[in-house]
Amino acid sequence: MEFIKNQKCAWPRGRVLGGTSSIDYMQYIRGSRHDYDNWAREGADGWSYKDVLPYFIKSEDMQIPSLRYSQYHGIGGPLTINKGTATCLSDNVYRRGMEEIGYRVVDCNGRTQIGYCPGQETVRNGERWSTAKAFLRPAMNRPNLHVVTNAYVTKILVEKRTAVGISMVKNYEKYNIKAEKEVIISAGSINSPKILMLSGIGPVEHLDSLGIPVVADLPVGENLEDHINVHLSFRDNTSSAYMYNQSPFHSFEYGLSKSGPLSKTHQEGNAFLNDDDNLIPYLQLSFISVSGISPFIDELTEMFKQSGSNTPHGSFLVQCILLHPKSRGRIQLQSSDPFDPLRIDPNYLDHPYDMKMLLKGIRQLLRLANTTAFRSVGASPLDPYDENYFLYCKHFPYQSDDYWRCRVALNFLTMHHTTSTCRMGAANDKTAVVDPQLRVKGVSNLRVVDASVMRHVTSGNTNAPTIMIAEKAADMIRGIDNVKPIRKRLQNYRTLLRERKKG
Questions:
Q1: Which fold has domain 150-221+416-457?
Q2: DSSP 281
Q3: Do domains 22-84+130-147+458-503 and 150-221+416-457 have the same CATH topology?
Q4: Active-site residue 250, yes or no?
Q5: 439 to each of 52, 170, 449, 450, how far by Cα in Å?
Q6: What class does CATH assign to 85-118+228-322+349-411?
Q7: Which pLDDT tens digit goes with each residue over 69-112?
Q8: Residues 260, 241: Cα–Cα separation, whole Å
């Protein structure tokens, strides 16, 4: 997460094996089934919920006992999923509070996403279980795999509108690597469009302005979508939340046995709220049980200092995340030099719908703060108005829509859930860069496989959907339909578990 300061924020990327799964929070949230059905309705054939569910299941090694028998989850896959609950706040405050305002407890990766979902995270034996650990390391000794680190891809080699390899730089030397079959770009929603545009695949006017010969005129870098959030920090009188800076013993405990408070993310639950009869949630509330100094409260503390107010010591945070913004951003090159930074305009809050829905979410969050469950622990929002947090907003009537608009504009965060910069679509879709097989339109032997191909950003964190895309793409590349074997394997696992339970 990054704060927006002076209309700027950092956009770090996972420049490590495993990508962003190696640096970000480890939440396992697939999104709504209706996300994928909408993709298919808009021309992404083969990407409906029934098409993608087997690939979510294929990856999973579900370790949460209550979900191991679920028809929506898998067992024995490389990606371990464990429960994220770590304190009593999850059950005593978050769950009860959501029930009071009309939402029940659900498995947000199951039949419905609407409701309160106890945390599910990609953790094994107390360690982050990134895609590098889950998928890459077990395959490192394969003779057909060669991993090169500290290398920088500068362009795709294209001959007669056919991708034949890539050009890269390592240790200040340039190498051209030829492909026997296909070139697959998996550099993420920020760098995949960069590599394509440097290779002459992108908007013709933009490429012409930089003197880059055009191979294919496609809307690369357009249609950028991202989740943004505002949050409230709460005091409570129970000291239930974890203090990261409180006990050196916890570091020793974790180093010795990979157990204790540091083996959890403390993002203990998520609630997905729908709007009237809409089946797709418009808002995600993310409950984070930390107190004092944490990796992201450092930024919050700095903002308090800049505004001249006291440092906050709220026991927990609740993030209010807008799931389906209508604002669209753009990624462009600054020059034809592959080492120049990109020009990124996320265009946050450009569409009035986005502010309207954030305000609606804030009202729901304030309603939650007034429940018996929250009051039972003395939980109350740290009030930035009373503490002079937002000096620029105090001339608006407190708690009015104008006040909250001012506050949101001054203090919202990106969730780093960027997608859709190489979005998929039908052959005649002028907004699409790749077809439903993830092949770049107009260029042979070239695919993109990462979050940039999402038709729209999903309802929730984007790690799990990106892994699903990679699983499905692997079968596409091999030219096989692996759905029936996946379902058969799951059925066999369930039968085995039932027999063990009876025995």
A1: FAD/NAD(P)-binding domain (3.50.50)
A2: -
A3: yes
A4: no
A5: 18, 27, 9, 12
A6: alpha beta
A7: 888 999 999 999 999 887 888 899 999 999 999 999 999 999 99
A8: 13
Q: Tell me how far apart the 2 most distant CA atoms of the chain are, in Å.
A: 71
CA-to-CA separations, 35 to 47, 48, 108, 116, 454, in angstroms, rounded: 10, 8, 13, 19, 10
Q: Are 285 and 260 in contact (CB under 8 A)?
A: no
Q: Where do the structural domains in the chain lie, given as residue ranges?
A: 22-84+130-147+458-503, 85-118+228-322+349-411, 150-221+416-457
What are the structure tokens assigned to 294, written together?
Answer: 């944490």
The Cα–Cα gap between 288 and 291 comes to 9
pTM of the model as a whole: 0.91
288 and 1 Cβ atoms separated by less than 8 Å: no
Q: List pLDDT tens digits, range 331-385.
A: 999 999 999 999 999 999 999 999 999 999 999 999 999 999 998 888 777 554 4
Q: Which of 73, 324, 417, 456 is catalytic?
A: 417
* CATH code of the domain made up of 22-84+130-147+458-503: 3.50.50.60
Please work out, in degrees rounded to the nearest 5, the angle formed at the alpha carbon of residue 243 by the alpha carbons of 238 and 246: 115
**Phi, psi (rounded to 5 degrees) for 357:** -75, -30
**What's the rounded mean pLDDT across residues 170-196?**
96
